[in-house]
Amino acid sequence: MPRTGARSPDSAGSREIGKMRVITPFFNGFERAARRLRGALIMAVLLMLGACATRTLPVQVTRFVEPGFALGPAPRAEVVPAHPELAKDPDFVAFGNLVGERMRRFGFRPADGGEPDVRIRLDYDGRAVETRAAGPRIGIGIGAGHAGRHVGFGGSLGTTVATGGRRKVYDHRIHLSLVRASDGRVLWEGRAFANGTRLDLKAAFPVMLDALLAEFPGRSGETRTVEVPLEPGHQR
Prior knowledge:
The chain is of the alpha+beta class and 236 residues long. It folds into 2 domains: 13-54; 56-134 and 162-229, 2-Layer Sandwich (Double Stranded RNA Binding Domain). 25% of the residues lie in helices and 39% in strands. The chain has helices at residues 9-12, 25-53, 92-104, 201-212; strands spanning 14-17, 20-23, 56-65, 76-81, 109-110, 118-132, 137-142, 145-146, 151-153, 157-162, 166-180, 186-197, 223-229. The strands form 3 sheets. The chain has a 7-stranded mixed beta sheet, covered by helices on one side. Strand 1 (14-17) and strand 2 form a beta hairpin. Helix 3 (92-104) runs parallel beside helix 4 (201-212). The N and C termini lie far apart (69 Å). Mean pLDDT is 77; it is low at 6-14 and 139-162.
């Protein structure tokens, strides 16, 4: 019989395995921590799945429209580089064809070697930047088990280790100008920016172009962010 005032094994919580009684306060705490951790992981997976289902590329768009902007029916147009160096870029022809295809939706037609009514000046660039990716921090120490944003066994003694690495992302820019061939007057101008995307310029260009030409010609002087849906498999 235990002495008066002494705690029996049952008061601390125990399990009986066969004929052996096991004291379980540590295991109870560990199980609670495991349940919390499991719930946090499930929530993280659900958030990731939701993000995958609604991937978009945010594109910042600004447009300027000449007052009384009008070109008449079916204006003839040609796409030209904004500066001579751009003509040497191997991607210019492909990007220029994309611009011409999009502009045909608004009634423009190719000049086909004749004198154009409008010259569409195309400028673009993209640069790779390196950034630190956010990742979980793992805490290693001595003490009771716990679970939360910092995963591990925490306590007053220990350290934390960041698990996020570096990744390459891109900053892209597209600049279009519609210039009247007869007098060189800029009738319409648009700029699109996509920063911090994992898409390279070849993948981002058609997406940014769609954002830039949405609701063409658009409101003059207005800057807004257009969320363009990405095709399955693309990471923004």
